[in-house]
Amino acid sequence: MRSTQTEFILALTLFGALATSCIPTAQPGMTRFSYQPTSGETVVKAKPTLDPTFPVFLASNRALRDEQQNRHPFADEPSSDFGLRFGVAQVEIENPTAHRRGRVSLKRTTLLASDPATRDSALADDWTDEIRAQLKHRTESTIVIYVHGYNAYVPANTEIAALLFHLCGQPGAVINFEWPSRESVLSYAADKALANISTRHFRTLLQQLSAETGADQIHLIGHSAGCPLIVRSLAAIRQANLNLTPDQLQDRFRIGRVVLAAPDIGAGIFFNEVLDGFHEVTEGVTVYASQGDLPLLASQLVFDEARLGRSFDGFDPWQSELALSLPEIEWIDVSGLESRRNGFLGHFHFLCNPTVSLDITRIVAGRSVEVRGLSKQDPNSLGFSLPSP
Question: Which contacts qualify for 121-124: CB closer than 8 Å, 24 or more apart?
């Protein structure tokens, strides 16, 4: 009976996800880009100097399509040589300084290095050079990397990365890391496996970016099935450098803030990686969870384990105790922020809910919990609440 019920809920939820998770066009007007400061904070506004057109750098372990397409040159299979592919997409923001709904438009994608001679041990020189040049022309030497979730379409992922970067004030350069999602609502199990095998590629990318671009900080924003990829990669870096202190790790790899939005990862797996010290590679981790996240409810039923991005109430006592002892990890409950704009599945709050996406921009800007206005009803509870819009 349990199996039949689980399969029915999963099928119903994933059918709905087909319409919701494949976002064809990101819309920056959904999120306010100007807000009133809280205590001690400077007002952040969209400035006229923001570029309406800018590059989104692509790094991917996808294979290439047999017939190259201007906007979407990548296939939905992993590369056969285990190497990374690199490219640059040009995007355009309509009304970049407007506070109303706009659109992100992907104009074209150019492959800079389709067959790296040294597999994935080094970045393509021309790709790295373009990132360096981009950083030199920005006020901040910061890289923002977006890692997509399951059933994800390359152009849409690129537009979402551009949106997040734009809302953060275009601080440096933005990278869309494309692991080989099958781009099918029926390929959930395959996507989870493909994300898992992509951790080595992502780890290599982080190592090369920190060594070769001169970036001061590398912020990571993951969504859904992309979150365990980030967590496992950082844990592997930590375990490969046990001789280094957390400060030395952060100085070497320059990983800034890590945002895990609606993370589709089991609580047990996550806390195993915590015990391995994945968070010590970073300047801090923020987890957004919602009890109204229906796709994660389906995932929870499939794996018979609490999902990190659905609720903090399902943690085992030792997990809750460990979580409370770690000031480096912020836990934010966004369950009360569902809205029609957020979609009935509640899985895209990081993109569609103004309060959540605004908080992400503040995280990238280095704002503290106090400055961002986060609060707890009970000081002994785990999850923070975001301020009312």
Answer: 121/204, 122/208, 123/84, 123/86, 123/205, 123/208, 123/209, 123/212, 124/86
